[in-house]
Each structure stands twice: as C-alpha cells, then as structure tokens.
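Bug #2210: token dump truncated for DUF6594 domain-containing protein?
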Amino acid sequence: MASSSRPPSPVGIHRLSTQIASDSTLSIYRSFTALNARNLLYLQTELASLEDRLLRLDNRANDMTKGVHQWSLPRSWRAMRDENGEMWMTAMEVRKLLEAYNQALQAQAWLHSLKRPTPRARDALAKLIDHGSTSELDREYIALNHKDLISLGPDTKNEILAQFLEKYFYKFFRTPVESTTVSDFSAYASIRSAVRVLAIIVSSVLPISSIFVLYYIHSERTRLGLVVVFTVLCSTFLAFLSNATNVEIIAATSTYVIP
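Reproduced locally. Full output below:
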C-alpha cells in the first residue's frame, strides 16, 4: 500500500498569491500610472495623425472638378465603402483606435479613483515578499514605487475606531497567514468585525439605557443634563463606529434628541 505523500508547499508567485488571498488588505498592486499615461499619449498622437489625414482626404474630395463620384465620398458612407480606398481604410483605423483610446481613458479614470494602501499593509506585503524569495520583487521595489501603489482591499479611511485599533492594538487581531513562517500581522477583517459588533451593542444599549435613566430621575435639571450627555455620546459613537458623513451624523443625532 503506497503511503500518501504530503503535497509540497507552494513556492514563488504561487506562494505569494496564496498569502495575498489570505487577507484582503494585502491586495496591493502597482497602477503603472506613468505607463498608462504614456499609452494614452501614444494613442492620442496616432488619433491626431489619423484625424489630420481624414481632414485632408475630405478637402481633396470636396474638389468637384474631380468628378461626382470623388465629391460624394465624404458625404456618402455607401460611396466610401464601395470605393474601398484610402478614406475607407482611414475611417476603419479611426474606429479601431478610438475604441482602444476610450477604453484606456476609462481604465485610467478608474485607476485614479482607487485608494492608496495604508503604510502597515504596504510594510506587511514587503515583509512577505522579502521572506523566502517569493518573487523577483523585493522590499526596495515596493519602497521605490510606493506612490504608484493601489489597494483593492477594504477602505479604512472613514472608520476612525478601526484605524485606531489597527494602529495600536493590531496584535490582538493578528491571524496566521497560510503557508508562511512570517510573523502574524493585523487582519483588517477581524478588526472590522469587532467594530461592527461593538456598534450593534452600542446602538442597542444606548437608547435603552437613556430611557431607564431618565425614567428614574425626576429632577428637571439633572434630566436636562443627561439628555445633553446622551446626545453627545450618540454623535460620538456614530463618528467613531461608522463611516457616516457629517450630514448623516447630524440627522441621526437630531432624530435621537427630538422625539
């Protein structure tokens, strides 16, 4: 009976991709902004040249002394297609190049809308790349191109408490990365789950506690002061436990205060 052998551990790009898949905060890649801009400039130059050629063909065809057929080329798609000459070929080149140019523009706009990775996520990726020669990339490559990096992971900019926990208490949320001996690092998914649970608890306890406290206190001044305290607590927790905008916080606080 043949003994079952343990499958070999992944190496190289396979290993690095496994590590990135284990935590979405590691989904960090180069956007190649300069190359994309150069590609757009090349396409733009080619289109400008084709546009100039097409205008020259239009002007040449406008000369009625060359016959009705030649004069009708820029005015009739059928005549231009049947003639199957330089104007038709130029129009086909323009169509193909415009499609590539518009797609490149949309891709560039989308790339500019993506966020930058956090320094902690960038350092974690550099650490993984350095360990075990997972690829031809290295820490220096990440450092030299840090302004050209984009993150496909969850957005942490609007969650103040999540940022605070990741910065100062990340050790409590570390999760092991599969197929690596590198030290564990912060997993934002765990932090976000903790913040979500805390938000649910606060949103349930705060209104109920305010009702009970105000019910058993009869002093008008004390009740008024407690209303102010609970209102401040409500807006503060909204700001720290959610990604609500200022307008949303004001609206929610007004709803909490005004019965």
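Output looks complete on our side. The CA atoms of residues 11 and 134 lie 6 Å apart. Marking as cannot-reproduce; reopen if the truncation happens again.
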